[in-house]
Amino acid sequence: MNRAHLLLASCLIFGWTASLYGHAGGANLDDPYSSEWVIASAAVDTIPLEERYDDFITSPNNNPFDLKDPDIVKQEVEYDPETGNYIIYERIGDDYFRSPTYLTFEEYVDYQARQQQRQFFDQLLGVSGAVDPNSQNDPLAQVDIQKSIIDRLFGGSTVDIRPQGSIDLTFGVDFQNVENPALLERQRRQGGFDFDMAIQMDVQGSIGEKLKLAFNYNTQATFDFENPIKLDYNTDAFSEDEIIKKIEAGNVSLPLRGSLIQGSQSLFGLKTELQFGRMRVTAIASQQKSEREEITIQGGSQFQEFEVRADEYDENRHFFLSHYNRDVFEEALENLPQIKSLFRVEKIQVWITNDRREFQNVRDIVAVADLGEPERRNMTTDNPSVQPPTIPRFRDITGSRALADNYANPIYDLIVSNPRTKLVDKVVTELRMPPFSFQQARDFEKVSARQLAPSEYTYHPDLGVLSININVNPDQVLGVAYQYSYKDSTFQVGQFADDVPSAGDSIQDQRVLFVKMLKSTTQRVDLPAWDLMMKNVYSIGAFQVNQQDFKLDIYYEEPGGGEKRFLPDTDIAGKPLLNVFNLDQLNTQGDPQPDGVFDFVPGITINPNNGRIMFPVLEPFGKALASQISDPVDSARYVYQQLYDSTKVRARESAFLNRFVIRGSYKSSVSSEISLGAFNIPEGSVKVYSGGVELQPGRDYDIDYNIGRIKILNDALLSSGAPIRVSFEDNTLFGFQTKTLLGVRTDFEVNPNFNIGATFLHLFERPFTPKVNIGDDPINNKIYGLDVSYSTKAPWLTRMVDKLPFIDTKEPSNISVMAEGAWLKPGHARAINEDSDADKGGVVYIDDFEGSISTLPLHTQPNVWVLSSVPQNDERNSNPLFPEADEQSTVLSGVNRAQLNWYRIDPAVQNSNSPNPYERRIEITEVFRNFSNANVVNSLSNLAQTLDLTYYPDQRGSYNFDPPEGTAYSAGLNPNGSLKNPDSRWGGIMRALQTNDFQAANVEFIEFWLMSPFLNPDGSG
Fold it and tell me: Fewer CB near the terminus (10 Å): N or C of the chain?
């Protein structure tokens, strides 16, 4: 007997003895020695557990305190086919735990019905299921949320979240110390912490089988469409009886089957699909993130339309080589396609200001406006010493026009006969002095120029027309040297680089190159060089243009009468404008017979390589038009002469005359690949039609959405010549107005072959401000649509076709009929209405003149200012202030320059209470009394930024080599080295301006605010 048994026996004996003695000592108890015995009943257990004598089916145990049978007890029900009863077994291994019993078929069916009913109500109450405590699954990947109403909503009770991606953290210190004296002391040392975080994360999640989540986030994404997010609730695959078929949130789409009303694939919002019997309803509320565009291709070529107005001629790109070429231009093109000219360019070199900092083919050139001019009426200078002879030296075969040549006037002879004009450091001085007396920027320009490569320009050898293929800035100089033949003679204008080589490396030995100036840094309409720029060439924005299917026409926008191809109420009312401007003189075979079509003459009326249109008249909307209208009143209505007599900026002020429009279309080169001109196109947004029939992707065409390129797979579509229309959506990269799209689409399925649909879409924009500029007015459009489609198989059609000889069809025949209609109701946002009345029209602003004044601060950067050159004298000034300006090639030019310092004082070291007014801080309100402090961030923001200058008229300035005894221009020096006669001295600074076309930039004045240097009444400062 072990210790446990001894302990149990001792406890029983002790308990029995204690119970006896306990009763003996009690009060008011019966005599224990009496002969009458009372047997007490057994105590009832506090937990009511009862033994089960029947099987587990007929006597189920529903006691919640019962621990049930252990798992070792196997409860089974087996069917006995001999008796037709169900045998109930309860075993432990191979031994019977209880005796087997049986159930009849009816009893077993009742049992199964009770069990299923109980499970159904348990499922509704959410008390079914159990959690396995020993599960090793990832708690983040799968979360069992118990079987409940959520199980019915989401088609399952498992939450599956699968995140993946990376997070890059960058932490550092960035410090720099720039020892630049041009910077303020506090600006030289800058530093701080450099902290950056890059997150790239992709999350795929689901709840059950109905709800899916797709989320992508990248902090380095450039555009919004690169971070898609979508929540998709779909019951189609789970059950057919659900009313709610689909709910989508985030990046959604609304594809529509019609062609009149096209949906969108790039939307952000909420979309629902409901089904009520045979009717399916789709509703959407979203923001539109894309723009729908459309292109047309025919025969593998893309059609593009263009529109150019009369004032949009190609400026500073096309030039006549001489005035002779301009004078004979219209006469040479009278008999197209033949050119009536004996003039032919044999050699040409083109020079332009070197603004690219290139070092190859770069030289110092002097472009002279009057070089080679044979007639006085075309001379820029009025100096009689350089005028050409009254009778031109070289003439054409008619004898009425003079030919250009270096020796047509005395300028070139004077240049080559004077050795000083060939030197870089002497040429400017020599040209400004007699016998030339030229003015810089008007008569000549000296610049460092580069020679253009042949690919950067083109020229017509017979017309003497030069076209530049690169942009020519307003401040650039364009010069040319050319050699041409006329009849049996050869002429030359300008010098070629290989004829005048540059000498040594020293500036004293370098030689300049003299060329003909076609364009200077200043654009003046009163100079003859203005006529050398062609104003009859227009760019349509096309390249490699095909003559086939090229269309061009000219329209006149009649006020209140629409566009017309002729000028009404004039002498030429019955003549198309193409004929008026000599653009329709030939037929398609090249015969001299107008046919109403633009004359496509390569190299003359059009340059197919770059899409330049050239009128065969000099001033098509000016003198050429006026010569055909006899009535002066009508001529004043239609002629746009300001376009040729003034700059383009000034001519556009006469907008009432700018009514001519050049419009047309062209077809690009043939190819099976079509570029849509966009990238990252929303998938599913591309629709391709041919002859009104929608093509199928993968069979008729293939598309790459990333690069925006379509490849036509069906060659029959290209060879048929039928137009192919491509409609697609282009993601809006930048937008200021938010577009909201609301819509409802209903489809009623009468039968599987017949469907009736209705569509309503409402697209509107919300402006940031009620003041909207013209062309940016917010839309508020509604569109209503109704469509019917019917499709069915037609075996009778197959049999009918099979009866035709030599035809045996293998595919089934179908008949499809579709009809649709749409009504568009355009509108505008109510925010721009004239008043609160919704019936009033909206108001847009042509120009509200807010912000019309833009300032160009010139004082904020002292380091861009440099010492000024000696101011030039005006020839009309009989008493010049700076006579030493002509001594630019000697040290005498700066003998009167005094000391001048310019700088900016750091506001941090200034004091507002300083007694010295030249050192203290200056607040903006001291200069501008009405300045508002509403936007002032701190005290330093209210300070005026000043450019401080200190002038010492008695101290020698930079590059001042004035001798003590003085010169013819200066008074000399005092014994202490100071300058004599300070009143005759000067100092100056200058800087370059980024905007030099003041007329185009509408710069009207320069404003100076100068603190008086003579604050004291006695003038002492």
Answer: N
> Beta 229-234 vs 211-218: how paired, if at all?
antiparallel
Contacts of 594 (CB under 8 A, 6+ apart): 578, 579, 584, 585, 586, 587
Q: What is the b/e burial string over 185-216, where b = at least 16 CB atoms within 10 angstroms of the residue's CB?
A: eeeeeeeeeeeeeeeeeeeebbbbebbbbbbb
DSSP letters for 52-69: --S-TTTS----TT----
* Residue pointed to by tokens 């009444």: 1017
Average pLDDT of the chain is 83
Could you give the CA distance from residue 376 to residue 778 in angstroms, rounded to a whole number? 59
Tell me if residue 532 falls in helix, strand or coil. helix
Q: 41-48 — which CB contacts under 8 Å span 24+ positions?
A: none
> Regarding beta strands 660-667 and 551-558, do their DSSP bridges make them parallel or antiparallel, or are they unpaired?
antiparallel
Contacts 24+ apart (CB under 8 A), 822-826: 822/258, 822/260, 822/261, 822/759, 822/783, 822/784, 822/785, 822/786, 823/783, 823/784, 823/785, 824/781, 824/782, 824/783, 825/781, 825/782, 825/783, 825/784, 826/779, 826/780, 826/781
Q: What is the pLDDT of residues 520-578, one digit of tens each?
A: 998 899 999 999 999 999 999 888 888 888 899 999 999 888 899 999 888 888 899 99
Out of 142-151, 341-350, 738-747, least confident range: 142-151
The rounded distance, in Å, linking the Cα atoms of 479 and 375 is 20
H helix runs in 861-901, sequence order: none
Contacts of 783 (CB under 8 A, 6+ apart): 261, 759, 760, 761, 763, 822, 823, 824, 825
**Confidence class of residue 297 from pLDDT cuts 50, 70 and 90?**
confident
Beta-sheet strand order (sheet of 279-288) = 142-144, 158-177, 189-207, 211-218, 229-234, 244-254, 264-276, 279-288, 738-751, 754-766, 780-793, 814-825
Strand order in the sheet with 701-704: 673-675, 709-712, 701-704
- Rounded Cα distance between 248 and 234, Å, is 8
Q: What confidence tier does 735 reach under pLDDT thresholds 50, 70, 90?
A: low
Q: How many helices (H) and strands (E) does the chain have?
A: 17, 42
Instruction: Note the pLDDT tens digit of each residue in 454-498.
Output: 999 999 999 999 999 988 888 899 999 999 999 999 999 999 999
Instruction: Classify the C-alpha dihedral 571-574-579-585 as positive or negative.
Output: negative
Q: Cite the residue boundaries of each domain of the chain with CATH code 2.60.40.740.
A: 293-300+679-731
Q: What is the CA radius of gyration of the chain?
A: 48
pTM above 0.85, yes or no: no
Distances (CA, A) of 672 to 283, 544, 557, 700, 703: 39, 17, 39, 11, 12
Sequence-distant (≥ 6) Cβ neighbours of residue 976 within 8 angstroms = none
DSSP 349: E
- pLDDT at 301 > cutoff 50: yes
* Cis, peptide link before residue 337, omega less than 30° from 0: yes
- Residue 551 CA neighbour count, 13 Å, CB half: 9
Residue type for 803, please? Answer: K
CATH for the stretch 293-300+679-731:
2.60.40.740
Task: Indicate the pairing of strand 551-558 with strand 948-956.
Answer: unpaired
* 949 or 734, greater pLDDT: 949
Q: Is 948 helix (H, G, I), strand (E, B) or coil?
A: strand
Nearest 5°: the CA angle 607, 611, 613 is 65
- With residue 247 as reference, give the H or E element that holds it: strand 244-254
Q: Is the pLDDT of residue 448 over 90?
A: yes
Which contacts of 124-128 are long-range, i.e. CB under 8 A and separated by 24 or more positions? 124/149
For residue range 338-380, what is the model confidence (pLDDT) as tens digits?
Answer: 999 999 999 999 999 998 778 889 999 999 999 999 999 999 9
Question: What is the DSSP secondary structure assignment for residue 736, as one 8-state letter?
Answer: S
| Cα 287 to Cα 742: distance, rounded to the nearest angstrom | 9
Q: Are 759 and 784 in contact (CB under 8 A)?
A: yes
CB atoms near residue 918 (< 10 Å):
13
